[in-house]
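If you are new to this repository, start here. Below is one unmodified record pulled from the training split, so you can see the exact layout before writing a loader.
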Amino acid sequence: MTAQPDHSAYRDDGLIPRPEKTPDALRAALAAVAPHRLPEMTEQQDEAFALAVRAGSIDPLRAFLNTWAAHIEVARSLRTAARLREAEHAVQTLERDDPRWSEAVRESLEIFNRAYATVNG
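And here is the target side for that same chain:
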């Protein structure tokens, strides 16, 4: 059985409150809005920790937290998440010479960049 997002906490603009940028808070938020992405997050967290150890720097951990905070920011809004899914689908299905492909790439980047700026600004 596939876990479904819990939309019972829908309030105003977001399905859930914006989480703190800690691994536990981000994991709990992702479980609420996009539980199917938890394995991806865990894999990237493991990679970030390994890279941080090899590099002797916490920068990979910061990048991991900032990136997942942005992914969760997108998923907090049903409307924004739907726009991103539509744009990503277009990128994957349209030919690159189709003007709609370029527009879909622009839309995807704009959505993610706005989310990233919101949680890291």
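Two things worth knowing about this chain: The longest helix spans residues 99-120. Helices lie at 23-33, 38-55, 59-75, 78-93, 99-120.
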